[in-house]
């Protein structure tokens, strides 16, 4: 396995974990506060969709055979 493929797979796993974390936040209605700012639940509605798409895209990109 080459370094580029490993990097894409690691990034894909992180995006997948990020998506799962946001889904758990949505299901359990867990409040998140950064400093004095409350993060709205709307962020956790959009974030798992975007991160899941990135997860799948990076994983598929790492699976493509190189032509070199």
Provide an overview of this structure.
There is one protein chain. The protein contains two helices and two strands. The relative contact order is 0.21. Helix 1 (3-28) runs antiparallel to helix 2 (41-63). A hairpin with a 2-residue loop joins strand 1 and strand 2 (37-39). A two-stranded antiparallel ribbon has the order 1-2. Helices cover 72% and strands 9% of the residues. With 68 residues, the protein is mainly alpha-helical.
What would you say about this model in short?
With 68 residues, the chain is mainly alpha-helical.
Give the tags.
single chain, 72% helix, 2 helices, 68 residues, two-stranded antiparallel ribbon, mainly alpha, elongated
Percent strand equals 5-15%
Query: What is the mean pLDDT?
Result: 90
Total beta-strand segments: 2
**Element order, helices and strands?**
HEEH
Helix content estimate: over 70%
Rg: 15 Å
Please report the number of helical segments.
2
Shape type: elongated
What structural class is derived from the secondary structure elements? mainly alpha
Draw up the topology in text:
Layout: H1 3-28, E1 32-34, E2 37-39, H2 41-63
Antiparallel strand pairs: 1-2
């Amino acid at each position: 396995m080459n370094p580029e493929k490993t990097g894409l797979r690691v990034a894909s796993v992180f995006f997948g974990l990020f998506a799962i974390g946001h889904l758990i936040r949505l299901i359990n209605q867990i409040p998140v506060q950064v400093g004095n700012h409350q993060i709205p639940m709307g962020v956790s509605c959009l974030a798992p969709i975007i991160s899941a798409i990135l997860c799948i895209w990076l994983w598929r990109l790492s699976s493509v055979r190189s032509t070199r």
